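Journal club side-thread
Mid-discussion, someone asked how the predicted structure for our own chain would compare to the paper's figures. Pasting it here so we can look after the session.
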Amino acid sequence: MTNDREYRRTHPWISFRHHLERADPLHWSLLGEAATRCDHVAQAVLPPAGARELHRLYLIKGARATTAIEGNTLSEEQIAAQLEGQLELPLSQEYLKQEVDNVLRAVNEIFRGIMGGEPPALTPDWIARANRRLLAGLEEHLEDDVVPGEIPAHPVGVMRYRGAPREDCAFLLDRLCRWLEGDDWPVRPDRREDRIASAILRAVFVHLYLAWIHPFGDGNGRTARLAEFMILAREGVPSPCAHLLSNHYNLTRAEYYRQVDRSSRANSGRGDPLGFLLYSLQGFVDGLREQGQFIAGIQLKLAWEHFVYGEFRRIPSSAAMRRRREVTLALGRISEPVRKQSIPDLSPDLARLYAEKTPKTLTRDMNWLVKQDFLERGEDGYRARVESMRAFRPPRA
């Protein structure tokens, strides 16, 4: 019988109760903001290159976060090179690349299922397969008694925490999946924002409960983060947003372990998930705000290009004006000031336009662009006045 199971004595915090009836206004405020910001990202219209860069950037951050929190030392730059098939490592470090590759493959597999109209269901089999995928090709780097995707007979834990009794793990995984896939979550099917809010809650709880149960011999954290990602992605959370919880946990690694530990010891050892939920929601919202700024930056540059084309259409066309327009556009696509002598090197078009011109021509062009307020000249060089587009935003106090 359920009441006779050992975990009830050793792990009373594994209660399959979310305690949201005790959540304070800050929980709900952050959850509402998170759901709204996810929807804003989903609705953002970006140029193809900007959309690809957003997806790529946060895929890299997510893959690094998922593996780095467990000791993988590859940088974002190295993972970017790995995506391009250009990362070369010494043989002794090849397993680091394998760990990241497993995460990338698992994430892409989840998305293929979602885009193909077959979103995965959270089941014990799915969780076991996820663990096997994440540990594939790493067998020689695992302890001898670790079998990917299987619950070992011996106790498993991390630092001072011990996972649930081994004889109860299969039961607990089944119970967890039925609970998370059930209707014990605030959601109205006719409202998209409630669907996303419910997914965010369940993503946090699947992570915490898999950390508490700790069913497998290795890779429990990676499995928890992949399950979290899957629940977010299948409910319509945009892919860049679905990586943000993992990124938050990695950026605040010491606090992450402290919050997981406190969640089981709180309430006189009966556990309380609301502290971990608040920590997760705050980090998720911080990540979404940063993501919103990234998207706003792309849209600002797009508005700048539209503005520049419009302004130059009002000026009689000439070879000089074509050069000046291309300089303005090129500088608008980069964030750092550029020295005058380096400006012809910014693009093939500029190199061609200035190939047979003297330095005086370039100086005249730059002086004219500064005088017309397209550019600003500083100690480090020239920059486009892209920020002037903010003057066209709706006024507010």
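Post-session note: The mean pLDDT is 92.
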